[in-house]
Amino acid sequence: MRVLLMIAAASAVLGSVAVAEEEDPFADAVEMRHGLMLQMATDLGKVGAMAKEETPYDAAVASKAAANIAAIASVLSMDQFPAGSEYQKATDSFALPAIWTAQDDFLQKIADLNSASGAFQTAAGTDLESLKAGMAGLGGACAACHKAYRQPEE
Ligand code: HEC
């Protein structure tokens, strides 16, 4: 009975993989991580504009943007980076293969973003000077990962 169930489960999985492969098996994961990254970029843009004094400092807006980045950082994991969903193998992917060959370091970069965005949350809601002082740490956490693991777009 158990064997039959396992066979049924396995063929269900294989069946769905076969269907997905025709459509690009990584489309959902790539779309998901792009969405998460773009939301972080939008929020970073808001606090960045305040730091450059292009928009007036607003503690509530800055806090919300910082909280969004921290929330998204906590969602990032290998779930959005399935093995094989790399640059030139998965449509629209700019994820470098090193993500999977140096996975511990990649996960450390996610942990670093979690620390940086946590610290930035306090800074962003305090005042403009604190926000400005906190920008480098947060932006640095984005940049460190992109430098190692993201193919620059031409
Ligand atoms: C742990 C690694 C890592 C961290 C940290 C990280 N990113 Fe990314 N980011 C990536 C990778 C890898 C890609 C390429 C993903 C792809 O194209 O499939 C990417 C892509 C992007 C993109 C392009 C999205 C698109 O639609 O092509 C933006 C924008 C972006 N990141 C913004 C940010 C911002 C802002 C931060 C910091 C708040 C950040 N990222 C932190 C790894 C990271």
Describe the secondary-structure layout.
Blueprint: H1 2-23, H2 27-51, H3 59-75, H4 98-101, H5 103-126, H6 128-149
Helix pairs in contact: 2-3, 2-6, 3-5, 5-6
Bound molecules: heme C.
Characterization of the model:
Helices cover 74% and strands 0% of the residues. The protein has 154 residues and is mainly α. The chain has a single domain (28-149), classed as Cytochrome c/b562 (Four Helix Bundle (Hemerythrin (Met), subunit A), Up-down Bundle). It starts with a helix and ends in a 5-residue tail after the last helix. The model has no long low-confidence stretch (mean pLDDT 92).
Give structural attributes.
154 residues; mainly alpha; Four Helix Bundle (Hemerythrin (Met), subunit A); 6 helices; 74% helix; binds heme C
